[in-house]
Structure formats: C-alpha cells, structure tokens
C-alpha cells in the first residue's frame, strides 16, 4: 500500500521466474543468482512452482496451486548456466527433469499439475511445454549445440532467431 508501505500482495507468481534469466542477460548475474535461488527454493520444497506462492505463509496461494508446465524457471536456469558455467544450474535442471518425470509424466507425454501439493494432474499440456520448457532443459545439458553458437537469439516464446 503506497501510503503505509504495507505489503498488499505477498505473492511470488510463477511468471516472474523469467526475471533471473533476464538479469543474467543484462549483466546483473549476481542479482539473478540470488533471485533464482529464492525461486528455485520453492521448486525444491514443492517439486514444482505453483502459479502463485504466498511468501508470508510459505504455501501455494489458495486456488493458485497449479503448475501448467511453465518454462520460466528452466529458462532462467539456462541463461544463468550460460552466463556462469556454474553446475548449480545444471543440477537445478536435473531436479526439474526429475520432478517432471516423477510427477507429470503420463503414457502419452506430460500433464499439467493441478495441485503442486497433492500432485494431482490435469489432462492438459500447453504447447509451450515442448517449445520452451523442454527446449531450455535440453539446452542446459547441450552446451555445444549449434543453436548456441552466438548467431541466434531466442524470442519470448523460445524460438531461435538469426
């Protein structure tokens, strides 16, 4: 609240997870590392990042405990790994893959997580899971891939642009 300084919305929203990667791209690698560690702490605790996490109660915000297979945290891990070469980000990617395979893998692919606490799934997989989440996780483990030769930039949807 602007008059009192009281926090009105004490939430970490999953879409904010792109920010540490953007910090790394803009040269604020130290800031990106700190923020990534905080965001990834939620993933470690719950196995996924919910749509909204209440930082005062340290729990998913009621009604917003879904994980629709979003790419932003994997994207930040990718950019921080590229900026630092620190295996911390590869290990984070490994942890993300393990959670996805353990809890979201189904016979014909992957399913969105309806509740990060109970791990109940929803019969849905948005295309950004393949276009972005899987791509960034793959590239964390493929540092010599041709798309990383410096001739490409990724669009906001993870498409390589020359």
UniProtKB/TrEMBL annotation:
Superkingdom of the source species: Eukaryota
Alphabetical UniProt keywords: Calcium, Endoplasmic reticulum, Glycoprotein, Glycosidase, Hydrolase, Metal-binding
EC number(s) given by UniProt: 3.2.1.-
Keyword Glycoprotein set for record: yes
Keyword field contains Calcium: yes
GO molecular function: calcium ion binding; mannosyl-oligosaccharide 1,2-alpha-mannosidase activity
Binding site for Ca(2+): 156
Top enzyme class: hydrolase
One CC-aspect GO term: membrane
Family named by the database record: Belongs to the glycosyl hydrolase 47 family.
PANTHER family: ER DEGRADATION-ENHANCING ALPHA-MANNOSIDASE-LIKE PROTEIN 2
Name of the molecule in the record: alpha-1,2-Mannosidase
Lineage: Eukaryota, Cryptophyceae, Cryptomonadales, Cryptomonadaceae, Cryptomonas
